[in-house]
Amino acid sequence: AQSVTQLGSHVSVSEGALVLLRCNYSSSVPPYLFWYVQYPNQGLQLLLKYTTGATLVKGINGFEAEFKKSETSFHLTKPSAHMSDAAEYFCAVSPRDDKIIFGKGTRLHILP
Amino acid sequence: DTGVSQNPRHKITKRGQNVTFRCDPISEHNRLYWYRQTLGQGPEFLTYFQNEAQLEKSRLLSDRFSAERPKGSFSTLEIQRTEQGDSAMYLCASSPSTAQGIMGQYFGPGTRLTVT
Fold this sequence. Notes:
The complex is a heterodimer.
Chain A: E1 3-7, E2 10-14, E3 19-26, E4 32-38, E5 44-50, E6 56-58, E7 64-68, E8 73-78, E9 87-94, E10 101-102, E11 106-111
Parallel strand pairs in A: 2-11
Antiparallel strand pairs in A: 1-3, 3-8, 4-5, 4-9, 6-7, 7-8, 9-10, 9-11
Chain B: E1 5-7, E2 10-13, E3 19-24, E4 31-37, E5 44-50, E6 53-57, E7 65-68, E8 75-79, E9 88-95, E10 106-107, E11 111-115
Parallel strand pairs in B: 2-11
Antiparallel strand pairs in B: 1-3, 3-8, 4-5, 4-9, 5-6, 7-8, 9-10, 9-11
């Protein structure tokens, strides 16, 4: 069975500091991996995805993630946090490009 | 491309009543998904369609839940005899054919259901 574990339900970083949101997955087949962001009272927006090929994936709003098969991880980073990055972030895995299995989410707080 | 739309955005109903939600996917997307999200949790898969065919249903989808996509365009999700435990955000997503590569799913704003 596939599953996703996000470490830390809440993460606080100062504006301008590095953002690091951790995600580990389990999958019996080579997975497709995603990060989604959810702003209050809005649907989920796709930040980036890994399917095949290059393991460092760049997404929107300056975010990127690196697929590390040996560590079964797909951590999300951004070099410099902005106040507008405050939101809930979901890591997700899809074993066959049909249903997506989401983690429980990490709420990112940006401190001024 | 106007994105995925869902109606209504909010629904308050009394326990035991039936409710129906509608989802209009992005027009060229042939796959449509329903998820449920409760407070503090990530979305949980309910069911998905490829064109008109319902290809998978989660065990979360009890007999009180039914979803349709009659013409391969919009979809409806009906909950019969609602219970307080059905209170959640119901999310719809769509994606194009995989012939175009793995694009990920595009989500609508959701329908928030409150059962009193």
